Amino acid sequence: MERTLFEKVDHYIAGLTAKENPALLHATATIDGANLFNQSISAVQGKMLQVFLKACNAQRVLELGTFRAYSTIWLAQGLPKNGKLVTIEFDQTHAEVARQNIEHAHLETIVELKVGNALEILATMIQDNEPPFDLFFIDADKPPYLEYFQMALKMSRKGSIIICDNVIRNGKVLDEDSTDEKVRGVQRLNDFLKNCDQVTATILQTVGTKEYDGMLIAVVN
């Protein structure tokens, strides 16, 4: 099948269930206007995150990899007014634009943006006995994906949902001899799942406007 067919179907689904509101369109414009490769999720994937939020009655969400807050806005708009979303971004420039996009969406009372090294920030949050989160969305740098997942487990409760994006890498995860650090990072996480009895998990292949990849979806036992 041609890639254009997958894209057309993605747009069809988005038109039915995942129409972008002005805040989301504005966030996308800040990416396109800067001539950046759009690392954000698709609209359909954003709506899927909201479905998972509802499924676990999420009040508290932790996101790793804010970029310019497109996925952040999808997540925050799916939370109740008294909900809380903590999102972590390493890049200062992306973080500043993300903050502006969050304010433009009037979500600054729900979203707390932390800037810096995610592993260090998470370690501090764990040390400070941060209350457990109901849903995690991991879409940050790939080499430490396993460490991100393990730290998410420490910050979860029974029934928490952990979602990790980009774990198939256009099928490159099948290459056991890959030297790509991004591929190696997600391979380490995927292999960890084989013997992890802390979660019930699967990996869904994804196609559409974001090409060919996959999402790891785990529920904490």
UniProtKB/TrEMBL annotation:
Hydrolase in keyword set: no
Q: Which GO terms label this protein's molecular function in UniProt?
A: O-methyltransferase activity; S-adenosylmethionine-dependent methyltransferase activity
GO biological processes: methylation
Cite the Gene3D superfamilies for this sequence. Vaccinia Virus protein VP39 (3.40.50.150)
Q: Which SUPFAM superfamilies match?
A: S-adenosyl-L-methionine-dependent methyltransferases (SSF53335)
Keyword tags = Methyltransferase, S-adenosyl-L-methionine, Transferase
Q: Which domain of life is it from?
A: Bacteria
Q: Which InterPro entries match?
A: Cation-dep_OMT (IPR050362), SAM-dependent_MTases_sf (IPR029063), SAM_O-MeTrfase (IPR002935)
Classification via Pfam families = Methyltransf_3
Protein name as catalogued: Caffeoyl-CoA O-methyltransferase
The scientific name of the source species is Flavobacterium caeni
